[in-house]
Structure formats: C-alpha cells, structure tokens
C-alpha cells in the first residue's frame, strides 16, 4: 500500500531560505581582467585598454620588439573614520598586467600613450622592414 503525502509548494520554496547564509561571491576578490582592443592599419597598431580607477602614475607600458606589456596597480586608500567599521569591500586593490604579441615589431621611439577617463590609448607605429643587403665579394 502506498502512502500519499500532501505538500504545499510555497512551503518547499521557502524551506531553508532563512537558514542558509547569503553568499555575495566569496571573501577573496579576484583580480579583474584588463580589457583590451587592438586595431591595425597599414602603419601602426592602436591599442585601447580599460583601466578604471587607476592613476596615470601607476601604469607602466613596456615594448620589446613585437611584444607589448601593460601593468597597473590600484593602491588601497585606508581612510577609516573613528567609530566606523568596514562591513564589506568588493573593490580590487593590487596589480594587474597583460602582455600580447603583435604581428610586427614596434618602433618604440615613435610610440605614444594617452590616458583619459580610465582608458589607456596606445599608438604603436610599425617598424619599417629593412631590406636584405647584398654583399659584394672582393
């Protein structure tokens, strides 16, 4: 003989809702990814990197042939007033970096960088190809 049990769907929905703690994504915040757009034309590469909340002085760009490296650091400002306590902080403080290789070597001397409204704009001219030299034999 089978037993029938009558259940209220609303009771099942609310069961345990107030017992389980609400998770806001973990206690350790991960480093955000640096979003980068790279465009190419005949003479140069244009790079746009999103770096919100970072000061211009804390951004470093390194060019080594066709490899471009961007690193930045967001420093934590500790401004706690008397009688105040921090309940939760979700902002990331620390270093982020990104390296990528382009199809052609970059002319470091003609390269330029601008930083405005949290976006780093790099203009990276391509290095001119050197023609192979033919040596004459004496």
Describe the protein's topology.
Layout: H1 9-14, E1 36-40, E2 44-50, E3 59-64, E4 67-74, E5 94-101, E6 112-116, E7 119-125
Q: How would you describe the overall organization of this protein?
A:
This protein has a domain at 28-76 and 93-127: Immunoglobulin-like. The strands form two sheets. Strands 1-2-7-6 form a four-stranded antiparallel β-sheet, with no helix packed on it. The termini are far apart. It is built from one helix and seven strands. The radius of gyration is 27 Å and the shape is elongated. The protein is mainly beta and 138 residues long. Strand 3 and strand 4 (67-74) form a beta hairpin. The model has no long low-confidence stretch (mean pLDDT 81). Helix content is 4%, strand content 33%.
Give a concise summary.
Strand 6 (112-116) and strand 7 (119-125) form a beta hairpin. The chain has one helix at 9-14, and strands at 36-40, 44-50, 59-64, 67-74, 94-101, 112-116, 119-125. The protein is mostly beta strands.
Question: What shape does the CA trace take?
Answer: elongated
CATH classification, class level of the domain at 28-76 and 93-127? Mainly Beta
Distance between the termini: 109 Å
Largest sheet data:
4 strands, antiparallel
What sequence of helices (H) and strands (E) makes up the elements? HEEEEEEE
Number of strands: 7
Assembly form of the protein? single chain
Structural class computed from helices and strand pairing:
mainly beta
Q: What fraction, in percent, of the residue positions are helical?
A: under 10%
Summed over residues and divided by their number, the pLDDT gives a mean of 81
Widest beta sheet: strand line-up: 1-2-7-6
Number of helices: 1
CATH-scheme architecture of the domain at 28-76 and 93-127: Sandwich
The low-confidence runs, each spanning 5 or more residues with pLDDT under 50, are none
């Amino acid at each position: 003989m089978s037993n029938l049990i009558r259940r209220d769907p609303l009771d099942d929905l609310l069961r345990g809702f107030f017992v389980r703690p609400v998770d806001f994504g973990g206690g350790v915040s991960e480093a955000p990814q640096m979003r980068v757009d790279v465009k190419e034309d005949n003479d140069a590469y244009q790079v746009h990197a999103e770096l919100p909340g970072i000061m211009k002085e804390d951004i470093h760009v390194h060019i080594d042939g066709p490899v471009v490296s961007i690193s930045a650091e967001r420093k934590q400002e500790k401004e706690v007033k008397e009688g105040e306590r921090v309940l939760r902080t979700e902002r990331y403080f620390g270093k982020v970096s990104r390296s990528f290789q382009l199809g052609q070597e970059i002319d470091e001397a003609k390269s330029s960088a601008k930083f405005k409204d949290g976006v780093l704009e790099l203009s990276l001219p391509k290095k001119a190809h050197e023609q192979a030299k033919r040596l004459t034999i004496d």
